[in-house]
Predict the 3D structure of the following.
Amino acid sequence: MKGGVVAVITILAFFTLVVKPGQAVTCGQVDAALVPCISYLTGQGDSPSPACCAGVKAVKGMAQTTADKRACCSCVKAAANMYANLKDAAAQSLPTKCGVQLDIPISRSVDCDKIN
């Protein structure tokens, strides 16, 4: 029950942070979108939750320009580095598991300046 409440609050927080046209992407927006993915990315689940996949789709929607893609990448990289137990294989497979073609790698070591 507690996890469900946290997921609902996270999703609601995300919707209040959705990018409006002409505004830069912030790490707060990216982090809020991907918070539901933490359990999957740290090996506590066999598959990403629907809330996680909704967040991955939201990040894809945020990352329309090269600048936005690079900003999202930097945010994802910083967030990934905060979790020592993040599973690289889970991170790399996340977009595919969610059925999203994401132009932003989910990795601790990606060079975000090379993203187009």
